[in-house]
Specification:
Layout: H1 7-21, H2 33-50, H3 57-70, E1 77-79, H4 81-92, E2 94-97, E3 100-105, E4 108-114, H5 119-123, E5 130-134, E6 137-138, H6 144-151, E7 158-165, E8 170-177, E9 179-182, E10 186-191, E11 196-201, H7 208-221, E12 226-230, H8 239-247, E13 255-260, E14 268-271, E15 283-287, H9 294-304, E16 309-312, E17 320-326, E18 332-341, H10 358-367, E19 373-374, E20 388-390, E21 397-399, E22 408-409, H11 417-424, H12 427-447, H13 451-457, H14 462-474, H15 481-513, H16 518-523, H17 527-532
Parallel strand pairs: 11-12, 12-15, 15-16, 16-22
Antiparallel strand pairs: 1-18, 2-9, 3-4, 4-5, 5-6, 5-7, 7-8, 10-11, 13-14, 13-18, 17-18, 19-22, 20-21
């Protein structure tokens, strides 16, 4: 809302408060600080006094702060109070609500999956259930934001929902007591075969180390002798979690990462210290151009110590460390305070000062091309201007200044326009949702709770594929024969994975998709080489 206030006083107090709150004397050379604040105050005063329309002073100040961030590095950001709680939630590792993953499909609120251990799962709510009423009011046509507003709330409070279960055709009313719902960063942990374990980590939150530790114990009890860790698409998170996770696999007092800043207070070194049973297990780490920050710290440490192999595409290249400063109105600044360096001395950060805009900086990773193939001795980078370093055991060349480049470069297969449109329009999910309404009980009866049996014995036959294609056409998807031929295996795999997810959640989803994943398939052929590193 627009408010009339004493603009000069408000502006001065607010700016002083912001700068004091972020210890600005440590960030700027203080000589011109007073003049700069006075100049900003003058602009605010003149705008409020003479501008043709009444101004929203808070909006102007937020715009000014955002403009300030544009003059800094690409990873220093201002987070508004509206955004802040959602950002904190994702890294804290929990939220309060009824515990469902959902989608609004054809104006109907649909349960994709109840979250493990949450109140909805405990009450017996199932994937595919349609929520048709909340507090006895119809929710047909509800938006995603409205779902969150109605279903989230303080732990201990109650909300009633009415679901329609297609398999029985019955309406069921539940009274759900909201609770703290975990947000897992370990998306999947499963045995690929009798000896290879696979773990996918989506981000580095407060709970990631503990989640990973429990996943490793589970896989070890299932016979794991080798491990693939998937950091593809992982944007990073807490540095301390990256250090603790690296320590799981590095023995002795090996250096994991160190940071250097303009201020000596921000210069820190981190070492392995604890002893774990996973320090000799062969490891392969999957990365791609979406792997950044904390995921690059772990990959860089493993590579520098010749502890395991890195497979996939060159990572994002974020070697800057941010500290978060919370402001008085529950907004926050994340300011870059230092750079991190891998044990060999590599700064992973890509150059950014030569880019016209932050947009150009982020787009660069999409346009980057890697030469596919064996890169164990990092010949793919030999003609670059990147600085040269050497791994600490095998003395292999590695390069800094632009992400972690894999030891084996395997490009992610690009999808045709057909598959991209199928994904964009959510056709896979909506079709399988309808398919399981009819055949769900049969699949459940045939495969019971046996994921391995489903993986080996369920096939997307021509009848199911043609039914899907006809459904896609009814949704306006243009199906070109050459694109269908090229992506046929992917489309079948995606349909099968969508079914598997309904019964085995993320473990089912990943177990099926990995069978058609060229980066993963290459990785599991390299364990002899990975094992030779730790002999």
């Amino acid at each position: 809302m627009k408010t009339k206030i004493n603009l000069p006083l408000f502006a001065l107090l607010l700016i002083i408060g912001v700068f004091i709150g972020i210890q600005v004397e440590k960030i700027f050379s203080g000589d011109n600080m007073r003049d700069s604040i006075e100049k900003f105050s003058d602009v605010m005063t003149l705008t409020g006094k003479y501008y043709i329309e009444e101004v929203d002073s808070q909006k102007l100040v937020e715009s000014a702060i955002k403009g300030m961030m544009e003059e800094l590095d690409p990873h220093s950001v201002y987070i508004s109070s509206k955004e802040f709680s959602e950002v904190e939630e994702s890294f804290r590792g929990d939220f309060e609500g009824i515990g469902i993953e959902f989608q609004v499909v054809n104006d109907t609120l649909t349960v994709v999956s109840p979250i493990s251990g949450g109140p909805s799962e405990q009450l017996g709510i199932l994937p595919g259930d349609r929520i048709i009423e909340i507090e006895n009011k119809s929710v047909i046509g509800i938006t995603n934001d409205e779902v969150r507003q109605k279903l989230r709330g303080k732990a201990g409070t109650k909300v009633s929902v009415t679901i329609m279960r297609p398999s029985s055709g019955k309406k069921i009313k539940y009274e759900i007591v909201r609770d703290k719902i975990p947000l897992y960063s370990v998306e999947a942990s499963l045995m690929v075969d009798n000896s290879i374990g696979y773990i996918s980590i989506s981000r580095f939150s407060e709970t990631t180390f503990e989640e990973l530790f429990q996943a490793l114990k589970k896989l070890q009890n299932s016979g794991m002798k080798k491990l693939v860790i998937d950091f593809r698409g992982n944007p990073g998170g807490y540095l301390n979690q990256a250090v603790k996770i690296s320590d799981l696999f590095l023995d002795g007092r090996k250096k994991i990462v160190y940071t250097l800043g303009r201020l000596k207070d921000f210069n820190e070194e981190y070492f392995a210290g604890e002893s774990y049973t996973y320090e000799k297990i062969p490891i392969i780490i999957l990365i791609n151009r979406g792997s950044a920050s904390a995921s690059e710290i772990v990959a860089g440490a493993i590579q520098d110590w010749d502890r395991g192999l890195i497979v996939g595409e060159t990572s994002f290249g974020k070697g800057l460390v941010q500290r978060q400063f919370e402001l008085s109105d529950n907004s926050a600044l994340r300011l870059t305070i230092s750079e991190y360096f891998t044990p060999s001395g590599r700064n992973i950060q890509r150059p950014y000062s030569n880019k016209k805009s932050k947009k150009d900086y982020f787009i660069e990773t999409i346009e980057r091309e890697d030469a596919e193939g064996d890169n164990y001795f990092h010949q793919s980078e030999k003609d670059t201007s990147k600085p040269v370093f050497y791994t600490l055991i095998k003395k292999r060349k590695v390069y800094g200044g632009g992400g972690v480049t894999p030891d084996y470069i395997v490009k992610n297969e690009e999808l045709t326009e057909l598959s991209q449109n199928l994904l964009k329009e959510n056709v896979f999910y909506s079709f399988i949702l309808s398919y399981l309404d009819t055949y769900g009980n049969k699949i459940k009866s045939e495969f019971e709770n046996d994921l391995n049996k489903f993986r080996k014995e369920f096939f997307v036959d021509d009848k199911l594929l043609n039914s899907f294609l006809n459904y896609a056409k009814s949704k306006g998807i243009n199906i070109k024969e050459d694109e269908l031929i090229k992506d046929s295996s992917y489309i079948k795999s995606r349909l099968k994975a969508q079914i598997a997810r309904n019964y085995w959640k993320n473990d089912g989803w990943f177990a099926v998709l990995l069978e058609e994943d060229n980066q993963f398939k290459k990785a599991i052929t390299l364990f002899n080489a990975a094992e030779s590193l730790i002999r």
